[in-house]
Design goal:
The chain is of the alpha+beta class. It folds into three domains: 178 residues, Bifunctional carbon monoxide dehydrogenase/acetyl-coa synthase(codh/acs), Chain M, domain 3 (2-Layer Sandwich); 189 residues, Ribonuclease HI, Chain A; 93 residues, no CATH class. The chain has twelve helices and 19 strands.
């Protein structure tokens, strides 16, 4: 076995290395040191170069020079060279870093690109594990699993200033990779790709990658996935025939559903690529952002991993992540990459950008160029609102399109209620009784509140079973005008 040879040839690696260590979690009390993560910064990057020389270099402190329980900025740069290597393989090889770190006993690696998060536990540190060993493992696994790679350089950086300097260069490379698929769409191709790389953490998660929907980790786009499936046909990334389109707007395909059902061990029967409310894609835990339903405004919020505050729901990213990670399919919550927000099919099954009502300011600035111009100032941030009531007022003041939907829903519900009451009263009187008269009336009440009898939340919302629908009775909303219309007398109604 390759990993036995690895340990045999590198006797100074003091811990076990192999797939048996995948999925290991390092909790706070067991942690010796945290590298990058949500409270620091860092990145990982793989580049194809001409002259790698099989070196491992540490720039900054190794972990034995760090204080126990501390966290530090962290970067891993892997340069590879070989005769058949092409630039389009960089993203695929880079995602392999996630697996390699998790092969190492006592090491936990989450996320990717510039949101990576690494922890090393106390036991492995006490056994002698250091960053130089991790560098050697990366080098040997790359060469062992990809024979076309001839030489590998691994540069590990813990010097904060150097990490920060290289981080901006890495982000520019990520942006260029993502731009490659801008003019390619789902209708232009016959196959999609699936990825089950994260099933060690989320056994039922199947990530479906299309030209319009990159992997939710943000690390693999459609062209990356195509390259990965070619270089390793038996690997974690594989072709999925597109099959027949069941719903073009929501992005539901019969062959995709068949593969998802098989690869999720029968746990997930179907997914909609472009919906949060109806059979959303599953999420592992490596997503860059979460789109979440806000019932009180019948719209969506988006929160990314970097945002440390609370959403209008009064909870942070971490709580929402716990709601929909682990390979769960939870209507109303969906993990995604930030690149997906720049897709023309961004949750089009639920109304797309016209249903987005809130997001962190930094994220909004990041994707501002793809937000419809007339919506930019109508989407709230943490600088504008801090709770649901403030969000409702903001959307109304700015004239967000969702407000028109509220008014439409209120009118339908009021008319429906009047009809129900009319029929109930008629039935109580019985046939031949005097007809019930309605008085046509118009009232205005600036800023007043009324109660809408019913608001429906979709089956499966919030983790409930898919056949359970939530019905909110007497939902309070603000209206400016109530119109009561004559429906005719009871005899005509009966006819």
């Amino acid at each position: 076995m390759f990993f036995n040879r690895l340990i045999g040839e590198n006797m100074d690696i003091p811990v076990s290395v192999g797939p048996m260590n995948e999925g290991e979690r390092v909790r706070g009390p067991d942690m010796y040191v945290e590298l990058a993560g949500p409270k620091s910064y860092g990145f990982e990057l793989t580049r194809v170069v001409d002259n790698a020389s099989d070196k491992v270099e540490i720039i900054g402190k190794d972990i034995d020079k760090m204080e126990e329980g501390s966290r530090t900025p962290f970067a891993v740069i892997v340069n590879v060279s070989g005769d058949s290597l092409e630039e389009e393989l960089e993203g695929v090889l880079e995602r392999k870093i996630h697996e390699i770190f998790n092969y190492i006993e006592g090491v936990m690696h989450l996320n990717q690109r510039d949101s990576l998060w690494v922890r090393i536990n106390k036991d492995s540190f006490n056994k002698g594990l250091r960053l130089k060993h991790i560098g050697e493992v990366i080098k040997e696994v790359y060469k062992g699993e990809f024979p076309f790679i001839k030489h590998v350089d691994v540069i590990i950086i813990t010097d904060p200033d150097k990490v920060k300097e290289e981080l901006e260069k890495a982000r520019e490379i990520y942006r260029k990779r993502d731009d490659r698929t801008k003019n390619l769409h789902e209708e232009d191709v016959d196959v999609f790709y699936g990825c089950i790389m994260c099933q060690s953490f989320a056994p039922t998660h199947v990530c479906v990658i299309t030209p319009d929907r990159p992997a939710l980790c943000g690390g693999i786009n459609y062209l990356d996935a195509r390259a990965a499936s070619k270089i390793d046909p038996e690997g974690a990334i594989f072709e999925i025939p597109k099959g027949n389109c069941i719903d073009e707007v929501k992005g539901i395909y019969d062959a995709v559903n068949d593969v998802v059902y098989e690869k999720s061990q029968g746990a997930i029967k179907a997914i909609a690529l472009h919906s949060v409310l109806d059979k959303p894609s599953t999420s592992c835990g490596c997503f860059e952002a979460i789109t979440f339903y806000i019932p009180e405004v019948d719209g969506f919020g988006v929160v990314d991993r970097k945002f440390k505050g609370e959403t209008p729901l009064g909870i942070p990213f971490s709580v929402l992540a716990g709601q929909c990670s682990g390979g769960q399919q939870v209507e109303g919550f969906c993990g995604m990459s930030i690149a997906y927000m720049k897709s023309s099919k961004f949750f089009q099954g639920d109304g797309g950008w016209e249903r987005i009502t809130w997001m962190p300011k930094e994220l909004k600035d990041n994707v501002k160029d793809v937000i419809p111009e007339d919506l930019v100032d109508k989407i709230a941030t943490e600088e504008d609102v801090s709770n649901i009531e403030e969000l409702q007022n903001f959307l109304k003041e700015r004239g967000h399109p969702i407000v028109e939907k509220w008014e439409s829903m209120a009118t339908v519900e009021e008319e429906s209620t009047m009809k129900e009451e009319h029929m109930e009263e008629y039935e109580e009187k019985g046939e031949g009784a005097e007809s019930v008269e309605y008085i046509e009336e118009s009232t205005e009440s600036q800023g007043s509140e009324i109660t809408v009898p019913t608001m429906y939340l979709p089956g499966g919302f919030g983790g409930l079973p898919s056949d359970v629908k939530i019905i909110l009775k007497n939902a309070v909303i603000k209206v400016e005008e109530i119109i009561i219309v004559r429906e005719g007398n009871s005899k005509n109604k009966d006819n």
